[in-house]
Amino acid sequence: MPAKLMPGKPYPLGATWDGEGTNFALYSENAEKVELCLYNPADPTEEQARFTLKEVAGYVWHGYVEGVKPGDLYGYRVYGQYQPESGLRFNPSKLLMDPYARALSGGVNWDTAVFGYRRDSEEADLSFDDRDDAEGVPRCVVIDPEFDWEGDRHPRTPWHRSVIYETHVKGITKELDAIPEGLRGTYAGMASEPVIRHLSDLGVTAVELLPVHEFVDEHHLIQRGLKNYWGYNTLSFFAPTVRYSNSTDHGQQVSEFKQMVKALHASGIEVILDVVYNHTCEGNELGPTLSYRGIDNPTYYRLVPDNPRYYMDYTGTGNSPNMRHPQVLKLIMDSLRYWVQEMHVDGFRFDLAATLARELHDVDRLSAFFDIIHQDPIISRVKLIAEPWDVGEGGYQVGNFPVLWTEWNGDYRDTVRRFWRGDDGHVDRVATRLSGSSDLYEETGRRPYASINFVTAHDGFTLRDLVSYNEKHNEANGEENRDGADENMSWNCGAEGPTDDEAINTLRERQARNLFALLFLSQGVPMVHGGDEIWHTKQGNNNTYCQDNELSWYNWSLDAAGERMLEFASKMAAFRRDNPVLRRRKFFLGRRIRGTDIKDIMWLRADGQEMSEEDWDSSWLRCIGVLLSGRMPGEINERGEPVKGNTLLILLNAYHETIEFKVPQGLVDGRWTLELDTRRAFVGDDEPKVAADEVVRIGDRSLMVLSLPQN
User: Fold this and answer.
1) Which domain CATH number covers 85?
2) Do 412 and 529 reside in the same domain of the chain?
3) Full-model pTM
């Protein structure tokens, strides 16, 4: 039985064990009373003690209890006014989660009274529900933060050398027979030798994990017999979700997560977390009261100014954080620092990051959020990736994030898809994207690696489905196929496309290779959607957020097409690694290199001549060549030495017919080696050399790469 309550300290927030007892600290500006509830770890339904926290300093309610140790369970009850019309929603009948809890035990039972109001009342959220919900909500866990990192260090792979692999802890491991069955779907499975070997063979330098913060399965999904698979419904910003743990749920999930990070680091692979600070799982005014809403609703949430009963919603999920409040900024920054300093992660991808930059209404590049990130000595030094949009007005902000930030380049995705589909008028756009999107990033002081290039991601078709389906098939989600983006690609329609099944499958594989190859030939940072490299299909479902099943889990039983795709992907990654000109640290200048007749980058017509202004204006043009000089003035490596490598000639043909392309004459000396032809994937060493002024035939809807060593 815990001893008596002592005053304790207001910092740090959360539950902090010191070897003899635990300090508890909770921030609430508008509360009138706060109770700390302690529960029996052997029987979480048994409340062992309840203490009123009488000490308050700077709106932090705090106390120290001797004898409370790692593995013990706790929660809060917060008293205050229940006036939804004024934005106040205190309800001490609801057991609340500590926003700073390092681990949670148990889950939400929607059949219990987890809503602060009577759902059967005609007044809806204006009514008050005094039923206790303790049996239906998680418990917070006191943890021991000690862990033997054994000298673990961040790999700190430079951005220009990075290859990101977006994946899901459960999805990549659940069906992999090479992993012991008990470890599949877990952090330990993610850290297993078969997974790490696969990532290393693919040239991956960083895994970007879909959300691992503790999250909640939405009520409407449970009612349809589904679960939240992706995890974009956060309950706790500090706790790694127990659902991916092979251990018990009394804090051991924290150590298992650390062990995963340590194993990946040992193989030189960084860990980037997809984090969701733009909303919480509590939804709008009709959502449950699980944590922030019951602790201090107007502090933590952005309420409608003239009607605070309702929430501002820039994400389509019901609420948005109150980024104008210092405590909310502190909560996010404390969370980020915790994951870097205590959990050793290497960076973050911020979901719907534009929401975090909204102070009044518009997205503001000078917002407090950007300011504190920029000046923070810890977070300013890790990898920062923005999903640069939200669903609010003016929310599409590709190219508008400040220095230190990289961005998911949605323009890159859309442009290369349209080009390979054969749309008119996209040659100039694909040229800009291939060369690093200087139009988006150069004027803001950033480098080509500010562009995180991708053609597929978790929220859309897989690569295989992208080239196989003309319409989404999301019927399994239970929303009558209304959910998910419309991705009508029409890859195989019309008189220009093949008609027999074998020819169609051949074209699909080639188009997939075209997309994947261009991704690795482009300046910027390539991001691979996990599973694409093994030809995974979701059967046309482009919104598998609720499909925790074989539809989402990677199918490791590879057929012939899967084997071909995996081999191609691995060789493509190796080709990028071996050719420094594909991962420049600076933008191309388009100027002639001193002492030569060649520019650092040259755009060529099919006759081998440099593109003219009139050529760029041709809306019908679908074929282009680009010559990248292996001489890179101003480019130096980490040792301060000049960088040089092979000169590359990349030929793109999005026509439905073969094009004869003349290798340029008088620009470089020597005979070219054909390295890649997506009609055949990588070619053999016995391929005949190609001389200047010689014509090569680039097949319909295909890509070729020729190389020439520098002397």
Assistant:
1) 2.60.40.10
2) yes
3) 0.96
